[in-house]
From TrEMBL:
Annotated protein name in UniProt: Ras-related protein Rab-34
Main location per the UniProt record: other
Catalysed reactions listed for this entry: GTP + H2O = GDP + phosphate + H(+)
Top-rank taxon, per record: Eukaryota
Organism in which the protein naturally occurs: Anabas testudineus
GO cellular component, one term: centriole
InterPro entries linked: P-loop_NTPase (IPR027417), Rab (IPR050227), Small_GTP-bd (IPR005225), Small_GTPase (IPR001806)
Family assignment from sequence similarity: Belongs to the small GTPase superfamily. Rab family.
Cofactor: Mg(2+)
Length: 267
């Protein structure tokens, strides 16, 4: 029996319910990152011809999930990744992360979801992991106006560590199951207005019922994938990119940022 283990054979196949063949639609047209109803043509062609360069088996996009304490960041990730919901609150201490593997237009694509702490005393540990994010998800509770009010601060903190032009932003209202339609409509207006101002795509979800959770993460994976492939095509220009395999530089420094940076806010 062969003992040789290649990177390919270590990876299990992508789950059938993580296969994305069509562009998932936005939640609200007024606050969408784009409103096209299909993937970019150049992206589709590149995928068909297997010219996606580093976007493929080895490409990992970093996603950070930030927002006030107890708004439901951990529950949102657990509903999607584990199809589980815990009604008891257990504060995230520092950070946790989950890997999710997708197949988009036939190409493997992974998201690394970083679940960060909202509690003030753990925030500085968490913020050392913000660097290198391609997607920032800012979460608020649709039943808590103050948590929506703090979104700009979370955005500022996240962008301090990242190139603002290279980040895709999502604004997610959670706990929709707890709000009455009238209350919800009121806060949605404010949330959409804010999303437009900060150029974020707006979603409302419930991790308890699962409403819109899968749709939301599929949209995140698809838009991140599309942006990555377009960037890859642009970078390559006329150069042949089909044979290049390299680990994304962002993912290289994921584990080293905390060592390099000495936070001085947690004493
Ligand atoms: N009804 C309802 N409760 C929710 C929902 N999402 C989260 N909760 C509850 O809200 C509380 C906080 O959820 P968490 O996901 O732990 O919050 P968090 O944002 O991760 O909090 P920190 O880790 O401290 O930043 C828990 O008691 C959850 O059960 C939801 O969609 N509906
Ligand atoms: Mg948490």
């Amino acid at each position: 029996m062969s003992t040789r283990v290649s990177a390919m054979s270590v990876l299990p196949p992508v789950r059938r319910d993580r296969v994305i063949a069509q562009l998932p639609q936005y939640f609200r047209k007024e606050a969408a990152l784009h409103t096209k109803d299909d993937f970019n043509n150049k992206v589709k062609t590149a995928c068909q011809e297997q010219r996606t360069g580093t976007v493929g088996r080895f490409k990992i996009s970093k996603v950070i999930v930030v927002g006030d304490l107890a708004v439901g960041k951990t529950c949102l990730i657990n509903r999607f990744c584990k199809d589980a919901f815990d009604k008891n609150y257990k504060a995230t201490i520092g950070v946790d992360f989950e890997m999710e593997r997708f197949e988009v237009l036939g190409v493997p694509f992974s998201l690394q979801l970083w679940d960060t702490a909202g509690q003030e005393r753990f925030k500085c540990i968490a913020s050392t992991y913000y660097r290198g994010a391609q997607v920032v998800i800012i979460v608020f509770d649709v039943n808590d106006v103050a948590s929506l009010g703090h979104v700009r601060q979370w955005l500022e903190d996240a962008l301090k560590e990242n190139d603002p032009t290279g980040v895709q932003l999502f604004l997610v209202g959670t706990k929709k199951d707890l709000s009455s339609p009238a209350q919800y409509t009121q806060i949605e207006q404010d949330a959409i207005k804010l999303a437009q101002e900060i150029t974020a795509e707006y979603w409302a979800v419930s991790s308890l019922t699962g409403e819109n959770v899968k749709e939301f993460f599929f949209r995140v994976a698809s838009l991140a994938f599309e942006t990555n492939v377009l960037a890859e095509l642009e970078k390559s220009g006329s150069r042949q990119i089909g044979n290049v395999i390299k680990i994304n530089s962002n993912s290289n420094n994921l584990y080293t940022t905390s060592k390099k940076k000495q936070p001085n806010c947690c004493q």
